[in-house]
Amino acid sequence: MKIVCDSECFQNDMQDLVNFFDPEGDMSFSLHHSDSTLDSTLTSKIEVENNGEIKEYVKFFTIPVGLSALREKSVIKSFFKNHLYQVLSSLTKKVLPWGSLTGVRPCKFMREMVERGEIKEHIVPEVLMKEYFVNEDKAKLVYEIMKHQKCIIKNDKLVDLFINIPICPTRCNYCSFISNELCKVADKVDKYLDCLLKELKAVKELIAEKSYIVRTIYIGGGTPTVLTAKQLDRLLGEINYPVSEFTVECGRADTITREKLEILKRHNVNRISINPQTFCETTLKRIGRKQTNKQILEAYMLAMEYDFIVNMDMIAGLPGEKLGIFKRSINTLLELAPQNITVHTLTIKNGAPLKEDKSQISQRDVPKMIDYAESVLQANGYKPYYIYRQKHQIGGLENVGYFRDGHVCIFNIDSMEDVSSIIGVGAGAISKRVFNLENRLERQPNCKFIEDYIARIDEMVEKKIKFFS
Predict the structure, then answer these.
(1) How far is CA 198 from CA 84, 457, 458, 460, in A?
(2) Distances in Å between the alpha carbon of 316 and those of 3, 22, 206?
(3) Domains parsed from the chain with CATH numbers
(4) How far apart (Å, rounded) are the C-alpha atoms in residues 253 and 230?
(5) What element of type H or E holds 421?
(6) What CA–CA distances, in Å, run from 451 to 306, 427, 457?
(7) Angle between helices 136-147 and 106-115 (to 10 degrees)
(8) CA 61 vs CA 11, 24, 134, 203: distances in Å
(9) Which of its termini does the chain have fewer beta carbons within 10 Å around, N or C?
């Protein structure tokens, strides 16, 4: 079902809400939304056409006085979305776990309301439930996460450094990232590192010139440990900031060796990720993730020898998996007891091979998977500390990171809550400049593909310097 909206600036948000109700586009009626303003009163009119009959839904709203232009736009958008949600919920007899919220960052949305003095933090769940139709469990989850984000520091001189290695051993069929299979770019990896280090050198000069303070370092991908030990050593040898949090995604257990872990440790990396996604080997083969449970467990035991803080990912809704299989995977994670666990809801994006064949995905069980993970993790001492949502997630659900024993990942909080500038280096990396006093941010992407990045490295460096000037 498509929506036609008079307010073009709200069109995408309204369509996103429609898509949560009708992810497959099966609904047979068309929906037209129009709005009009008379003085400070808004009128939202929704016309629903079904089999030639048109039914009209009208709602009025008075704009509060004294709002900034930016805040007024946000309030107006919420009014239209809330009205649309009520109409669609009535027509479909469905309720969504996140109500009328379609944004990626629900905690940021509520934190800004608290910071503006509009609400007190302790009533966040009540506001989410009453004003945005969020269900009680999700509303309480937002509140719990906000309580665990006390590491947020809003200082425009603080930056996080992100370095991207967009290469993997193989491509998972659910993945929509611009990531290259190693076999297809093996002859370009050394040249890519040459260019990445050229950009990194310029970034280091920029950081010194602007007197920035690097708070965290995060090397992601892709799978950075797909690099050889020598290549990894070369890269890490050029990074020498004395940070308390230095993360490298090791993701795929089949790329982890003792030699590589020793190199990481020698260069002061203290956090890594080892991502099973599932402990069902049939599923691993089905999704094209060529690693075994034996490799995952061996990699984890090695990481424990070197005293790394470890994050492990799970995905709810993988092809062929039902609730029982997912429960066993979560229970296996609890036996391993990594310091961080991130539970993702499967997202089926354009560009992912899985999008062409979704027949093995059992969407009915996914909300139960997410609920099970939250309840059993919290019962075992894990606490939620960051959350984000994506378009095309099954059931309109979410991704949540959990921690134990105080081991939150500051980079994840900074990046998901948009509270700190990020300097991105490498193909596909996105730099983000946060202006806290002005409550705004700007983004500057590098080109996505390795070949383009190599060919345009001087342009990338020049744009980066200009962006942070």
Answers:
(1) 50, 8, 9, 10
(2) 30, 20, 41
(3) 1-94 (3.30.160), 158-462 (3.20.20.70)
(4) 18
(5) strand 421-425
(6) 36, 9, 10
(7) 70
(8) 19, 32, 20, 49
(9) C
Q: Phi/psi of residue 316, each to 5°?
A: -90, 125
Q: Per DSSP, what are the bridge partners of residue 243?
A: none
**Cα dist from 121 to 114, 144, 212, 402, whole Å:** 6, 11, 31, 21
| Helix/strand/coil for 3 | strand
Are 425 and 199 in contact, with CB atoms under 8 Å apart? Answer: yes
Predicted confidence band at 52 (pLDDT cuts at 50, 70, 90)? confident
Give the number of other Cβ atoms within 10 Å of residue 391's Cβ: 16
pLDDT tens string 308-318 = 999 999 999 99
Q: How many whole angstroms separate alpha carbon 407 and alpha carbon 309?
A: 8
The verdict on whether omega for the bond into residue 288 sits within 30 degrees of 0, i.e. cis, is: no
DSSP per-residue letters across 141-181: HHHHHHHT-TT----TTEEEEEEEE-EESS--TT--S--EE
pTM for the structure as a whole: 0.94
Angle at 207 between CA 205 and CA 209, to 5 degrees: 65
pLDDT for residue 294 is more than 90: yes
User: In the chain, what are the helix, strand and coil shares in percent, each to the nearest 5?
Assistant: 45, 25, 35
Mean of per-residue pLDDT scores for the chain: 92
The string of DSSP letters for 270-285 reads: -EEE---B-S-HHHHH
Give the tokens for residue 409: 């990942």
74 C-beta neighbours (distance < 10 Å), count: 15
Chain mean position to CA 376: 22
Confidence of residue 205 (pLDDT cuts 50, 70, 90): very high
Rounded to 10°, the helix 258-266/229-236 angle is 10
Cis peptide upstream of residue 221 (ω within 30 degrees of 0): no
Q: Rounded to whole angstroms, how far apart are CA atoms 249 and 50?
A: 50
pLDDT given for residue 454 in this prediction: 98
Give 29's DSSP letter.
-
- Helices first, then strands: H and E counts in the chain: 16, 17
Nearest alpha carbon to residue 224 among 212, 239, 214: 239
SS3 446: coil
Q: Report the run of H or E that residue 2 belongs to, with start and end.
A: none
Residues 6 or more apart from 291 whose CB is under 8 A from it?
252, 253, 254, 284
For the record, the structure tokens of 295 come out as 């490799």
